[in-house]
Structures are given as structure tokens and as C-alpha cells.
Specification:
By secondary structure, the protein is α/β, with parallel strands linked by helices. It has 12 helices and 8 strands.
Length: 290
């Protein structure tokens, strides 16, 4: 079974999958090594790795190139965060086949205006496009895919924008009608109550997707018990872990005036070389170098 088919089957069965964010192939390999079902090709993390805001500052080409590199580095499915689809439905129709060709198994597209502002930014600009306009983008994405198992996930930011449950449910239903394979419902409330209310009211046939960044107390066992969620995404934990670790090590080196106190606690150079694929390179050398 292909990666695409495996992802679609598990998503539709609501056998809860968990995806870890990644901003480069190394973080993706570490996530796969840890046992995550899929990789979230995070626009937020990629932007952060370039030290620019998550506001469509980076080009579509930069994001696509990174998704291609990540998909080549891991065997698990890759879910690409394509923000608003890089423009209107025409842009989406051109973008989706490129992501599919890059080895991505699914794209997630949100219903905000372009350029977007990151969802969890305090006092961020959270403006949504018309429902009918976003339906056209979903339809364009579905029509553009070449593999029927490639998934198009629609993300509504109605709760992020403060538009309430009725608007969120109406948009989600409209997006399902347009052909979305799943609905990502997002919230920036610090408790899961808002999202749980949405899930309880959801009568659609397609599964839901959660990103519990703002409400970490909601555990996978609790999500699985809801029976309507097919995927949970840990949306920014790779970059946060990397930043925290680097800050700590860098500060200790400056404080100690050298690496003598930190070196023993770090992964070895041998560990890093292994992650770079040294075993595969050695095998190629044995086979082909004469």
C-alpha cells in the first residue's frame, strides 16, 4: 500500500494518527524515529527557521522544495501546510500537482485571506475569505490531484477569527460539500472547550483534525474517545524544542568559557553522521566504488 493510500485509509477510519511538525529533513527523520505516524510540513516552523514571520513571507517555491526534501528523507506520509494555497483557486490548481509530485500525501489549506497572519499571534490579522470562494479553492485542489488517495484537508479559522460556532460549523459543512477529505478545526483558547463543543455538534461524514497547541491538556486518549477525529497535529514542537535546546547550550558555553561542561550531554558526532545516512552511503561504496 502506498503512503498516500495508507494515510487516507487511517484518516477515514478515524484510527487516530499523530503527526509531528518538521522544518527540515533532519527534524522529520527524528519525528519518524520517535514513532509518529506522519510529518506535518509546517509553514510556521519553516518561517521560524528563516527567522521571518509566518505571514507568507517565504515563497511557495521555498516551501515546496523543503516538502520535497522531507518526503525524500522519511517513509511516513508528509502533510504539507500550504497556508491559503498561495493565492486564488487558479494558484491552488497549479500548486497541488507540484506538491503531489514532491511526494506529499496531503495538503492542508486554510480559509484566511492572502497574505495570512499566523493563527496564534496576539491581536493578529485574522480575516477570512467568503465561504463560496474557499469552496472553489477546495474544488480546484481536488480536481488537480492525480492520485485519488492524495488528501485535501480544509482548515477553517472561524473560531480563531472569533466568528463563533455557528459560522465554524457552516463553513466546515460547506467545505465538506466542496470535496474536502477532512476538516481541521482550530482554536486559540487555552482550554479545549471550544473545540470540544464543535466536535460534539459536528454531523459531517468526514473526519476532523486537531492542532492542540493552545490546549495541551487534551491527550490522545481523550481525542480518540471522541470518535470523530482522524488526526492530531503537534504543530510547532520541533522548532520550539530546537530553540530551547540551542539557547540552553549556547548560554552554558558562554557562561563556562568553553564546551567542557556541555559536550558530554550532547548527541555525539557519530549520532549525527548516522542521521545523515552514513550506513546507506557505506553500502553504496561497497557496491559501486572500485
Amino acid at each position: 500500500m502506498s503512503r498516500h493510500a495508507h494515510f487516507r485509509q487511517k484518516l477515514q477510519d478515524c484510527a487516530l494518527m499523530h503527526a509531528m511538525s518538521a522544518h527540515n529533513p533532519l527534524s522529520a527523520k527524528l519525528a519518524a524515529e520517535a514513532g509518529f505516524d506522519a510529518i506535518w510540513g509546517s509553514g510556521f516552523e519553516l518561517s521560524a527557521s528563516y527567522a521571518v514571520p509566518d505571514a507568507n513571507i517565504l515563497s511557495a517555491g521555498q516551501h515546496l522544495d523543503m516538502m520535497r526534501a522531507i518526503a525524500a528523507a522519511v517513509d511516513v506520509p508528509v502533510i504539507a501546510d500550504i497556508d491559503t494555497g498561495f493565492g486564488n483557486a487558479i494558484n491552488v490548481a497549479y500548486a497541488v500537482p507540484q506538491y503531489e509530485a514532491a511526494g506529499v500525501s496531503a495538503v492542508v489549506m486554510e480559509d484566511k485571506t492572502f497574505p495570512k497572519d499566523t493563527s496564534l499571534r496576539a491581536d493578529g490579522r485574522q480575516e477570512l475569505v467568503r465561504t463560496q470562494e474557499f469552496q472553489g479553492k477546495i474544488e480546484a485542489a481536488c480536481a488537480a490531484r492525480r492520485d485519488a488517495d492524495f488528501c485535501v484537508i480544509a482548515r477553517t479559522e472561524a473560531l480563531i477569527a472569533g466568528l463563533g460556532q455557528a459560522e465554524a460549523l457552516a463553513r466546515a459543512s460547506a467545505y465538506e460539500a466542496a470535496g474536502a477529505d477532512a476538516i481541521l478545526i482550530h482554536s486559540k483558547q487555552t482550554t479545549p472547550d471550544e473545540v470540544l463543543a464543535f466536535i460534539a455538534a459536528w454531523r459531517g461524514r468526514v473526519p476532523l483534525v486537531l492542532v492542540p497547541t493552545a490546549y495541551p491538556q487534551l491527550r490522545e486518549a481523550d481525542i480518540q474517545a471522541l470518535g470523530k477525529v482522524g488526526l492530531v497535529i503537534y504543530g510547532n514542537h520541533a522548532i520550539r524544542a530546537a530553540v530551547g535546546a540551542m539557547r540552553d547550550v549556547f548560554a552554558r558555553i558562554r557562561q563556562d568559557g568553553g564546551i567542557h561542561a556541555v559536550d558530554a550531554g550532547l548527541p555525539t558526532v557519530r549520532d549525527i553522521i548516522a542521521l545523515q545516512g552514513d550506513a546507506g552511503m557505506r553500502e553504496l561504496e561497497r557496491k559501486f566504488l572500485r
